[in-house]
Amino acid sequence: MAKRAKTPKLPTGADDTAPASRRARPENYTKAGKLKATVYETEVARLQEQLALLQYWVQSQGLKVLVIFEGRGSAGKGGAIKTLTERTSPRIVRVAALPKPTERERTQWYFQRYAEHLPAAGEMVLFDRSWYNRSNVEWVMDFCTEAEHEEFLRSCPEFERMLVRSGIVVVKYWFSVSFEEQRRRFEARNAVPLKRWKLSAMDLAEHELYVKYSMAKDTTFEFTDIKQAPWYVVPSDDKRAARLNCMSHLLSLFDYEDVAPDVVELPQMRELPYVRSPMHEQTFVPQVF
């Protein structure tokens, strides 16, 4: 049996481990310090109900809400987005996860392809990664020039201030994960064939360049953590707690009211002089279950 490689020592400050905090109810956590599943299921149901109410408020008030999810690979951004949108309408709350830019898009103004996905009145858009690709993965992997990186850091704050002045609520979350936890999650993916597709070459490169990603995050925050659109860090070594903390915080940013539609009376079926074709003429899927 092969021995596990020794984890290298990180430079001071390079890790994304959150500072220890005192928990009000330690009985809600396992011996390993992770939130219990029973507690999570109860709280996530409550928060999802509130998010459903928030979507009605956003729609009724004509709000334009943009929520950006950034962070390291395996930090839990996708899981948080999936949990947040599970009980909401995709017509009100939609996800924007853009693929690699096309050849034409590479010649556009950098923010152009993102701008077309911004929310209109009554919408909330969740960006699963965003224009911050430039100051993180593109810079770390040398996919952009130093000049392009510097221009992004100069123009991004102004771009976001323009969005806020136009009436868009900009919320930015950075999901952080420690080196040890990231390694554990990558090893778990590698061990299961059905999950191995989630372990890409970019993930491996990101893990190898963990310290450079720390540099990228710090530089990004230095230039773009502005008062009009501040960064909110979500420690995510505990995925369950991270999802609940993110959802709870997002709800706290809005002074919303319950404007959910009232109960309606279902109409009676109208009788029409119509005879349907025989059911046996239709092709049904095999009744395996």
List the helices and strands and how they pair.
Blueprint: H1 37-61, E1 64-71, H2 77-85, E2 93-96, H3 103-106, H4 112-115, E3 123-128, H5 134-140, H6 146-165, E4 168-176, H7 179-191, H8 201-208, H9 210-224, E5 231-235, H10 239-252
Global Rg: 23 Å
In percent, how much strand structure appears in the residues? Answer: 5-15%
Secondary-structure class: alpha/beta
Oligomer class: single chain
> How many beta-strand segments?
5
Compressed to H and E, one letter per element, the order equals HEHEHHEHHEHHHEH
Mean pLDDT, to the nearest integer, reads 94
Sheet having the most strands:
5 strands, parallel
Q: What gap, in angstroms, lies between the N and C termini?
A: 42 Å
Which blocks of ≥5 consecutive residues have pLDDT under 50?
A: none
Given the C-alpha coordinates, what overall shape results? globular
Number of helices: 10
Strand order within the widest beta sheet:
2-3-1-4-5
The helix content is 40-55%
